[in-house]
Amino acid sequence: MPLQPLQPAIDERVCASGDVTIHPSAAIASGVILQASPDSRIEIAAGACVGMGAIVHSSRGRLTIGAGANLGAGVLVVGECSIGENACIGAATTIYNASVAPREIVPPGSLVGDSSRQIELEETSTPAIEEPEPEIAIDPPEPSEAEDEPDSPDPSSNGFHPQSSSTEIYGQVHVQRIFTSLFPSRPSVNPQPPEDSSDTSS
Question: The pTM is what?
């Protein structure tokens, strides 16, 4: 989870309530809140540095920040905790009822201690926007082979009967029909071959 940018403290004062002991050489930045619940205590040793906007809340025990320890900006320390000497706590880190060893370095945005308080953020699902279904263009049916070929005219309509031929010529029926309509007395373009004389003599 990316760290959110830290905002500067609006109130430059340091708020301390309860049993809080701060060494004179400790550095407390603006906007820091130090709160000790009843029967609890906060002790900040010499040379410790608490960053801007940090919250230190002691509850049910003692919370100590060792000498030379450095708490980054926006750090949250809650419960009975112990920050060792010269430890470095990164910004926006949460420490809950845990101890940090001396000279230990905690990366920014870490969670140290009881992890049962974690909150899992559920992804909020945005309502789906119903979009109109796109119109599907229906292509016209492809013409079949029977439709591609022009209908052959009925030769009997004009009283013309084409002669059968061994070789079929494309468009011969149309040519015969045109000739018949233009020259009704003319014989067929492809007349039937004459009969063999030998057959007639017999």
Answer: 0.54
| 39 strand-pairing partners | none
* Residue 173 near residue 154 (C-beta atoms within 8 A): no
Helix or strand run (H / E) with residue 49: strand 49-50
d(CA 164, CA 192): 8
Closest CA to 78 of 117, 123, 52: 117
For 11-26, what is each residue's pLDDT tens digit? 678 899 999 999 999 9
Distances (CA, A) of 122 to 28, 114, 125: 37, 21, 9
Distance of alpha carbon 118 from alpha carbon 114, whole angstroms: 9
Residues whose CB falls within 8 Å of the CB of residue 79, separated by 6 or more in sequence, listed in order: 57, 58, 59, 60, 61, 63, 96, 97, 98, 113
- Distance spanning both ends of the chain, measured CA to CA: 114
Distance CA 130, CA 88 (A): 53
d(CA 87, CA 65): 9
